[in-house]
Write a structure and sequence with these properties.
Peptidase S1 domain-containing protein, six-stranded antiparallel barrel, Neuraminidase, single chain, mainly beta, signal, 3 helices, Peptidase_S1A, eight-stranded mixed beta sheet, Peptidase_S1_PA_chymotrypsin, Thrombin, subunit H, 580 residues
Amino acid sequence: MSRKSQLRPRRAGVLAAVAAAAAGALTTFAPAGAVSGGAAADTTSATTARIVIGDSLRGCTGALIDQYWVLTAASCFADDPAQPQALAAGKPKWNTTATVGAKSAQVVELVPRADRDLVMARLAVPVDGVTPLEVGTSAPTAGQSLRVPGFGRTKDEWVPAKPHTGAFSLDTVSATGVGITGTGGAAVCKGDTGAPAIREVNGKAELVAVASRSWQGGCLGTPAAETRTGAYATRVDDLGVWITNVRHSTPSGTKVTGSPFTVVDPATGHPLTFVQDSKNHLWSVDPQNEGWTDLGGYAAARPTAIANPADNHVIVYVNGPDNKLWSYDRTTGKWTEFVPTPAGTVLAPDAVPRTVVDPATGHLVTFVRDTAHHLWSVDPQGEGWYDFGGLAATDPVPVINPNDGHIVVYVNGPNNRLNSIDRRGAGRVEFVPPALAPDAVPSTVVDPATGHFTTFVRDAANHLWSVDPYGPGWRDWGVMAATDPVAIADKAGNRTVVYVNGPNNRLNALDFATGKWTEFALTPSGTALAADAVPQTVVDPVSKHLVTYVRDVNSTLWSLDPQGQGGPLWVRFHGGPSAP
């Protein structure tokens, strides 16, 4: 059947709804219909999504192709289902829920195709425990057999509780679609808009097309005179690049830039990650709760965050609009703009603020550099801004000395020498060479094994160095640091572990106690880290494992738990800036 045939428009399963609305009110929910056929096999139903749009306004079917993404028909969401190409990208006009198995999630973003009746719908939270349906990559050919599962009507049910499936023959192939015909009494009915057309290849199911419109012969409510069981479905086999790009994009269509920063939210006990996107929007993501949230265009550089022990609020600090320091209270949703420095300077364009809780006062104190490379601290509850002078070639790193409660700041200082500044104690200390890379940012921890401050930093030749001024001094760990290292004190293991973006942009870890290096495999997508990616590691509050967050070459956010069940476990933040 050609695309120009006068098929009965499927209209996202809303023909009955439109008629009822015209009469006055929609009294019953008639989903966009289920395939007239037998009950779907478990392997099929596992990835088939029931989509409910509005207050039972429309019903459709879709296919889970990613933990965060459902592929379905754009006509389901269009104001006029006969004009799917008019659907705008962004948040759905009507509240929409997608249910896969026992898991329901809100649809929070639509990414439509302009050339066919197709849309990718992003879910607010991931569908875990289900292997998504694989998208086929080879062109369909006439004569192939397909099966179509759906949640719409059958020949004798208005609202099936479970998906039904029907067998179809593939008749015609065009550039963007296929014509199919039901066999054995199968038909695409109202409610099956967006239903997956699946073929078997070597015993493996793969998605070929998405149902768009049909004759609806044999479906409940269709006139008995209509016996045709043909349908038209939108091809997806040629859209691999587009689908991949959408999955790797943020909810706004932007990409993750810079590096993530993760803290544990005291209110939920969940790791909460903040990232900057390519439009300088700040995003947060909690995959165990509300998913991705756009916090606005406030992030000129990488964000950092801290849990304030005074009230358990998570506070985010960013180099914001006009390169002024801003903070965001994630609990209250309040943004605060800091007054300029007394010198009238603004932050360096790429400056990343770092904040600690001062044990002496309980105040949050932030350290940052300005355009003149001056190191500043600011305590908005106390002395305000304080100028340490021209000591900051790159971003400072404040650390609390557990012995006296002093804040000690480590910084790549004049002539690219490592400096530490203890304003209340020893003052400034400049470390002897090696010289650091001009853009190197140190990472300092109190090593649980020794109780000493130990700093890790890279030089201009990408060598990773450690320095313990109270122990062995400087030590060269080789050409292992493509970007800045991140060190974390693993108190449970009484050791320090250092994570680096290493050779060939693989994630590497150094056990500082044993001197053993571990190189981790590529992500399950086969991707290496982005060339400028800096990992960030936290202790997971539940497992107590060290979990590292990092961005890959596709700008996708990943986490890695080296102690995951069965070995190192990579988890992708789907759709992320895996904002979704």
